[in-house]
């Protein structure tokens, strides 16, 4: 990997285009280097993973809204939309599918200087590949680039410190991935990256306080904007430049300011793209920092039950954890909504106090039952929920930011104190499904996740058809990528909420 220094350059300073970060990213995207087999295999896993969580959310309101918008834009040759037959304009299909993928907060993650869900790259890249009639091998090349750029930007540039939403790294990564997919030249990709970043930079209020359905739409919108940015760049239109380093650019006014100095790693010319292998998926439908705490709560709940302890006798639970967990999904956020049983699903998903309480009591985590209003309003849960707090532990924060994958941790140490003074302590560094966890996900687990989430929603025959196509993505020929979407029966679709008519 080559490390690139990124800083603000005054307009009066000579700063050649080929030194711009956007140009360096575009060069990586334009590099014809072969995709390594393990990166390609992981891309197939994530295609299955995305389909799993999209299928599970198709009948929910935000994906239904996005789908209704896409259905107003039929197009041929176009792109498919989860749940329905037909083809639609690729940017709208990307919006619908991206919203379905993100709705349950249940797909893959990568955490470093910034947070991300790299699987958000797949819907817009796949939609574009379907629209252009490309092959499975070409699709995988585009996906692997999207992941690489997302991971590298996340490693190098922190956004949340300045309350900028992490999808600001997604617009450029999708533009780069589509650039690889379409074999565009460096100049065109460079302009698309600049436009994509400029149009997808927003604040983190979408993940603060009473979290709305926009949390699901935000990455899907970034993917849609990236597609449109590529389209304009292909037609010869340019972008603000230098988009990151300009004196009125993103770094100067949205991030660390004119004295900032970032280091962004990118593959050297001819170097394989392996960033996708640094990412990890979720076993549970919850914010990634909750994955290890859920597994820890399940384990500690069983320990308490084995000891004959009554969970109602818990006096307090303190989770010692990283800065991110404490301040984003813990009590350090100072969000009263995180203790509100009437809060939205999106808000409960970002309350580790609620999540730990339910997982401790139930010994499981379910993407629907664990968030139901009935579950959130259970009296003993509310009582336990309010006994849980988080504190930042410098060692957990250090491990969170470690560049050593064997040391990097996203978990917590839980201290449970009972009313009789008994104290139970335990900790878990990474989730069970993490590559270094107790039960790492393999292709078998990805397929199992799809089967579980599709049960009762998708006919067995349709499940079999999709899984056969997905596992053989690399062998799919030009024009065969429409097989990578799952269609619901009309009876199943009839269960979706009725969406009010909009503009289209």
UniProtKB/TrEMBL annotation:
Monomer. Its EC number is 4.2.1.3, 4.2.1.79. Residues 284-471 form the MmgE/PrpD C-terminal domain. Keywords: Lyase, Tricarboxylic acid cycle. This is Aconitate hydratase. GO terms for molecular function: 2-methylcitrate dehydratase activity; aconitate hydratase activity. NCBIfam families: PrpD_hiGCgrampos. Belongs to the PrpD family. Pathway: Organic acid metabolism; propanoate degradation; Carbohydrate metabolism; tricarboxylic acid cycle; isocitrate from oxaloacetate: step 1/2. SUPFAM superfamilies: 2-methylcitrate dehydratase PrpD.
């Amino acid at each position: 990997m080559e490390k690139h220094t990124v800083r603000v350059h005054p307009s009066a300073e000579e700063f050649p285009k080929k030194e711009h970060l956007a140009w360096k990213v575009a060069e990586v995207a334009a590099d014809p280097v072969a995709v390594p087999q393990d990166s390609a295999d992981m891309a197939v896993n994530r295609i299955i993973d995305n389909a799993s969580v999209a299928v599970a959310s198709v009948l929910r309101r935000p994906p239904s809204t996005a789908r209704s918008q896409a259905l107003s834009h039929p197009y041929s040759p176009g792109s498919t939309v989860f749940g329905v037959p037909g083809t639609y304009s690729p940017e709208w299909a990307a919006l619908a599918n991206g919203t379905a993928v993100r709705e349950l907060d249940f797909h893959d993650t990568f955490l470093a200087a910034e947070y991300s869900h790299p699987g958000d790259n797949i819907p817009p890249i796949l939609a574009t590949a379907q629209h252009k009639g490309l092959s499975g091998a070409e699709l995988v090349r585009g996906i692997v680039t999207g992941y690489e750029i997302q991971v590298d930007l996340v490693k190098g540039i922190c956004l949340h410190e300045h309350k900028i939403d992490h999808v600001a790294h997604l617009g450029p990564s999708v533009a780069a991935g589509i650039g690889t997919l379409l074999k565009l030249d460096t100049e065109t990709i460079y302009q698309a990256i600049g436009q994509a970043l400029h149009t997808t930079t927003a604040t983190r209020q979408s993940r603060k306080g009473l979290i709305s359905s926009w949390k699901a739409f935000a990455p899907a919108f970034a993917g849609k904007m990236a597609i449109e940015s590529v389209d304009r760049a292909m037609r010869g239109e340019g972008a603000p430049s230098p988009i990151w380093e300009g004196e009125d650019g993103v770094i100067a006014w949205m991030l660390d300011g004119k004295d900032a100095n970032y280091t962004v790693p990118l593959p050297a010319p001819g170097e394989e793209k392996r960033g996708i292998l640094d990412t990890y998926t979720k076993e549970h439908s919850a914010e990634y920092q909750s994955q290890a705490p859920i597994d820890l709560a399940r384990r500690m709940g069983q320990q308490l039950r084995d000891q004959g302890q009554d969970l109602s006798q818990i006096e307090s639970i303190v989770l010692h954890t990283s800065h991110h967990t404490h301040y984003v999904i813990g009590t350090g956020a100072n969000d009263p909504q995180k203790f509100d049983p009437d809060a939205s699903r999106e808000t409960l998903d970002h309350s580790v106090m609620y999540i730990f309480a339910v997982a401790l009591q139930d010994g499981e985590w379910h993407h629907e039952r664990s968030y139901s209003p009935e579950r959130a309003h259970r009296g003993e849960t509310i009582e336990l929920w309010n006994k849980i707090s988080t504190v930042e532990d410098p060692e957990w924060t250090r491990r969170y930011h470690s560049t050593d994958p064997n040391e990097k941790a996203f978990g917590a140490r839980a201290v449970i104190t009972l009313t009789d003074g008994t104290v139970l302590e335990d900790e878990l560094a990474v989730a069970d499904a993490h590559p270094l966890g107790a039960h790492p996900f393999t292709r078998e687990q990805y397929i199992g996740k799809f089967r579980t989430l599709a049960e009762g929603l998708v006919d067995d025959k349709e499940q079999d058809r999709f899984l056969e196509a997905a596992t053989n993505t690399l062998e799919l020929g030009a024009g065969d990528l429409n097989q990578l979407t799952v269609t619901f029966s009309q009876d199943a679709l009839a269960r979706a909420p009725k969406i009010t008519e909009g503009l289209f």
